[in-house]
Amino acid sequence: MYQWRKFEFFEEKNPGKCSVPEEVKGKINCCSSGRGKIVVGCDDGMVNLIDRGFKFNHGFQAHATSVLFLQQLKQRNFLITIGEDEQTSPQLSPICLKVFDLDKTQPEGSSTTAPDCVQILRIFTNQFPEAKITSFLVLEEAPPILLISIGLDNGCIYCIKGDIARERISRFQLETVTDKTDASITGLGFRVDGQALQLFAVTPTSVSLFNLQDKPPRRHTLDQIGCNANCVAMSDRLELIVGRPEAVYFYEVDGRGPCSAFEGEKKFVGWFRGYLLCVIADQRNGKNTFNIYDLKNRLIAHSTVISEVSHLICEWGNIILIMSDRTVISVGEKDMESKLDMLFKKNLYTVAINLVQSQQADAAATAEVLRKYGDHLYGKQDYDEAMSQYIYTIGYLEPSYVIQKFLDAQRIYNLTNYLEKLHEKGLGSKDHTTLLLNCYTKLKDVEKLNVFIKGEDGIGEHKFDVETAIRVCRAAGYHEHAMYVAKKAGKHEWYLKILLEDLDEYQEALQYISSLEPSQAGITMKEYGKVLVEHKPVETVEILMKLCTEEEESTGGGTLDGTFLSMLPSPVDFLNMFVHHPKSLMDFLERYISKVRESPAQVEIHNTLLELYLSSDLNFPSMAQEIIGEGLNLGRSSTVGGSLTESESKEKLAADNKDKDKEKDRLERLKRGLSLLKNGWPSDLVHPLYDVDLAIILCEMNAFKEGLLFLYEKMKLYKEVITCYMQAHDHEGLIACCKKLGDSNCGGDPSLWGDLLKYFGELGEDCSKEVKEVLTYIERDDILPPIIVLQTLAKNPCLTLSVVKDYISRKLEKESKLIEEDHRAVEKYQETTLNMREEIHDLRTNARIFQLSKCTECTFTLDLPAVHFMCMHSFHQLCLGDNEKECPQCAPEYRSVMEMKKSLEHNSKDHDRFFQQVKNSKDGFSVIAEYFGKGMVSKTSLTEAQKTANLPSRNGF
Is pTM beyond 0.85 here? Predict the structure, then answer.
């Protein structure tokens, strides 16, 4: 006991002022606490309730003679007492058990205001013989079920279980020892662990344990030594506490456990909030000492000398001692802050830490104690131990408080340890990660760096800021670690940045991109594609093909489905990668269009590819550098081994070879460009696979004649086609083009021959051969009048009359024949007209004699009534029916003529049609003449005078 430290963690409340209230007249036999009150039973049969501050509340007569034992229940406001009442018969014991409901009083009209006594039980019966009661304990199993244990001086324990108020109970007896000598039950204790219910029983000579779940309950002897009364208690850890003169023992279900040696006879033993309470009689001075022990921290929390103690109970958060002289000592625990201040003043930080941990203080309070202890050790320059305390404060103490103390280079190991623990708990910030990695790199501790970077399992479980770790490792030259973190965390951009910018591992970067998901691979290719194309163009194109076409997953070698392609990246998204590498871009786009036929971006792709094909000069930086490098090397070698003249000649030779290669490459590209134009606009497509306007502009900008001719021909811009030949002065091509495009039977434009003739007429040089050939086709299709031909060719001073002599002769001969035919037709029409006029005159002036004898309709003999028409047809009137005004035989012809006349009159008002016919006709004059001949433009409005005189107009026929 003398090895334990003493502290005043408890203090006496209202010292010297508390005593048992005067209203309590009898001697106190028993006490109980609970539900905010202290209940005392006296030898006069009274039960008294005392409030906080030991103020009397009320009392009532529970038993006639004496109250021996009582217990206040915790879950219900019930009081159970054992006392001595009046003996009604010699056969019945006066000892009985009563149950009082403190929330109810007896009915009105009774002589007392005592609480309602809900049940009275006789303890001793024929089956349970009477003996002296030495201990009493009640367990509330599950209200209203109670388990009452009554210890006797003969070593027996009477148990009553059930609903006591309704007397639905069962009784059974437990035997502690077979020898009845000195077998008095001095203490009882219930142990409830889940469903297991056990009962400790203590006598002066034994400690026993009963398992009440067994039927019948089995007894297990834990020890052959017991203790006296008032020296038995139960701890909050469900241990039985037994006080003996030499020590205090703790018992578990399997036997004796730890013990604490305290000298002196134990008068009272108790337990309060983890503290052991002992009233010890000092044999040397005959005084009693009340000690409060903190067993975990091995210290005496309170010690005071007191007089004779009658009862020891705990209530209101205090320890209450009722003395034999009826005075009361109330001891309460000081607050945690006061206790810690007391320890801090003595620099007992270890005790303070153990104290807060044992009393289950909150983590923040524990961390504050640890901080103060760490500060104390730091002040003593015990940096290692100080850091060990600071580590326990992680999560509660601001890390910067500790870090600032250990920034000195000499204490870098302590700082590293703290930062490691900080990250293990997932509390490291970006700055902490940076600092820790810098510590590792300065210490060159690769092993710890490996553990920190690679020591975590799973993905996404890093306890540090990933980007910070990558950045610091990269800056320190630990590229492998930076790449490991980037790959594990899915930071593809960082991984590739290290590979490409720091390590120049282009092939590995390409392999890594190939292993990514298509969407992520596309993103990374857009970001790093320029660098990859510059160093690994072929491999980069392969990856792009895989991304844009999914070559490995598509079945067969055919084209891909348009719906599937819409889900893939478009080559247009990667065009900016090839800004300095057009040759690789051509390769990529050529492979793509050969694989994909229905790409959503086919117009953009064809436009880009066409621009590359037609570009007059492609810049290939890599090729140029190689050539220049070779030239320089040759120059250096020649300078060393030969003269400067040889060097210059070799450089010139290299430049000439370069020019030849460029020209050869350009011709090859133009060839592919023309093929692209033709393949992109097959005959079955209305619209091509490229932008026609852009294609024309590109062809004109780069003087690509073949492409322009193809596009103009496909767009039916025939005049632009021949214009191209005219600008190139390609007479053979011009004539061949007109033969192809000027044939009206094949949908051509015959007017091209007229344009061609005009071109030769304005040429200003001798082109007789070409003109003769052109005149042949003009004459064949009668495209131009001879006068126009002569006027056109007259503009060329280099042409002679011999060029058109044969043409004019043939045209004059043909015209002469036409004139003769027209004369014969005129004479015929004049003769016919004269006969018709004579016939009209005859009809108007002379009578007609009808001599037909048969009906024209029915061919029977004509008889009256008959109808005769001026056309010399006669009909029976019955054969005509209702149609008597026109001849049935001549009427159809007459109607067709009238309909034709109406049609001509209607067409005469359609001016647009008239002018369109004039415009499209080879000879517009013939169209006008035809309109005049049909009388469609012969009638004009008459003047008023002409209308009055009924005269024909001047223009009439």
Answer: no
